[in-house]
Write a structure and sequence with these properties.
Length: 463
């Protein structure tokens, strides 16, 4: 492998590496346009590194060669689809990989659902999804309370004071996820701070040396990572033990898992995945949504009018969320404009065809979602933040096809949509959200897209 001493391997390289490790891919050239290997041993890894991220590499590759491209990860062929039309052609019974599950379970040395009995994996996935649904229903008032607490914090600030949006959204997301997943012990801020410290220690190693093995070479880093993982697992085991066979007023995520036929290890793994992925997706969806609202007074005012019409002076309720159609359009456009998760992956288990080209068996097929989300043939004025585009049925169908809406959306994103809706219903009815003049927002493309630096805003009270 290439020497990554000067390069932090991205989340998505980890995903690709994990999948190709589990499924040695075909080395057969397919005739699909794309790059020849730059390096005999490393394929096009040098090109990916020079592009800063896999997403940016794919943007350049698709611009040069078209919507169907190929490149080499080491000595293995990878195919990337960059248009919705090609994605429609490729939908088949192949197994769709959940990038969070694949990447996180590989890093944490957990058994991936890529292996094992298909029926058991389906049952486990269904239980996971039900856990998210039930915990959202049971903890709706909690999420509203946490949103109100954040509003009170912002109202207490001087109007000219800059608000560190990323920091506050991550804290809000962590409180929402920990209390929803693991219960009332995380009402204690010290427990949340402890969780965040361990979460950050684990998450920071994703993107560092998973492929090059540098974690094993640096004993200080390795000990910090292993200690954090051990502490988080110990916390999850403690919660599991406390709630097994007992009844509580508030249903949480882990309770649903306990009602299934999962082993203690499987419960630990699934709660860990939800805790890690749920925090990152929720934090970044909320961050980007609030940031984009600061850039468009018209969108912010239209959202306020809908909130006022549907909710009036009363609190948001679970039943009224479906009536907040423009709010959903805002969140859908946030996902699209931010390219919230820029890549998905699917293993080509059987030989297939796309656009007259053959995709060899056991090829990893990337869905370049970040490319598709800003394709002008599917999205007019693709770089404009315009929630109105999702008033059209075709736009919603396209987003659903990409896995960001409807039955295809991942459970963590469904959780994030609900939390973000509640948060916006609280903030927008009480505050004007303003941009900081002169701020240049640069983007970091990893498994989840985030601002490269802190995003600053200011707020003022609505009269």
């Amino acid at each position: 492998m290439l020497d990554f001493a000067i390069f932090a391997v991205t989340f998505l390289l980890i995903l690709v590496g994990a999948v190709l490790y589990l499924y040695p891919a075909s080395r057969q050239a397919s005739g699909i346009p794309g790059l020849a290997p730059t390096d005999e041993k490393d394929g096009n890894l040098p090109d990916i590194i020079s592009s800063s991220s896999l997403h940016e590499f794919l943007v350049n590759l698709h611009e040069k060669y078209g919507p169907l491209v190929s490149f080499w990860f080491g000595r293995r062929l990878v195919v990337s689809l960059g248009s919705i039309d090609l994605l429609k052609q490729h939908i088949n019974p192949n197994r769709l990989l959940d990038p969070f599950e694949t990447m996180l379970k590989s890093l944490l040395r957990y058994q991936s659902s890529l292996n094992g009995d298909t029926g058991e994996s389906h049952m486990r996935r269904k239980l996971y999804e039900n856990g998210v649904t039930k915990s959202l229903q049971s903890n709706f008032a909690l999420i509203q309370k946490l949103s109100e607490e954040l509003l009170a914090k912002w109202l207490s600030l001087p109007e000219a004071q800059h608000v560190p949006l990323c920091q506050h959204m991550l804290g809000f997301a962590m409180k929402s996820v920990t209390q929803t997943a693991m219960g009332s012990s995380f009402e204690d801020d010290q427990e949340v701070i402890r969780f965040r410290r361990h979460h950050d220690a684990i998450w920071s190693e994703i993107g560092k040396g998973f492929l090059d093995g540098s974690l094993d070479k640096n004993m200080t880093r390795k000990k910090l990572y292993e200690d954090a993982l051990m502490e988080m697992e110990s916390t999850l085991r403690k919660v599991t033990k406390e709630r097994r066979g007992r009844s509580f007023n508030r249903h949480i995520f882990i309770d649903t898992l306990l009602q299934g036929s999962l082993s203690d290890q499987q419960i630990l793994e699934d709660t860990m995945i939800f805790s890690l992925a749920g925090c990152i997706i929720t934090a970044n969806l909320c961050t980007w949504a609030v940031y984009f609202l600061t850039t468009s007074e018209d969108v912010q005012q239209n959202l306020y009018k809908e909130m006022d019409r549907v909710l009036g002076k009363g609190p948001i309720t679970h039943e009224k969320i479906e009536q907040l159609r423009y709010c959903r359009q805002v969140l859908c456009e946030t996902v699209r404009t931010a390219k919230l998760t820029p890549i998905a992956a699917q293993l080509q288990e059987l030989e297939g065809r796309v656009d007259q080209h053959t995709i060899p068996k056991e090829t990893l097929v990337l869905y370049a979602l970040g490319v598709m989300l800003q394709d002008s043939s599917s999205w007019p004025s693709p770089y404009k933040f315009d929630p109105e585009r999702f008033s059209e049925e075709l736009a919603m169908k396209n987003l659903s096809l990409l896995g960001f809406s409807g039955s295809q959306e991942c459970p963590e994103l469904r959780f994030a949509y609900m939390v973000a809706t509640v948060l916006l219903s609280v903030l927008v009815r009480k505050l004007y959200l303003h941009p900081v003049k002169g701020q240049v927002m640069e983007t970091k493309y990893e498994l989840v897209t985030s601002p490269k630096e802190e995003a600053w805003i200011t707020v003022s009270k609505r009269s």
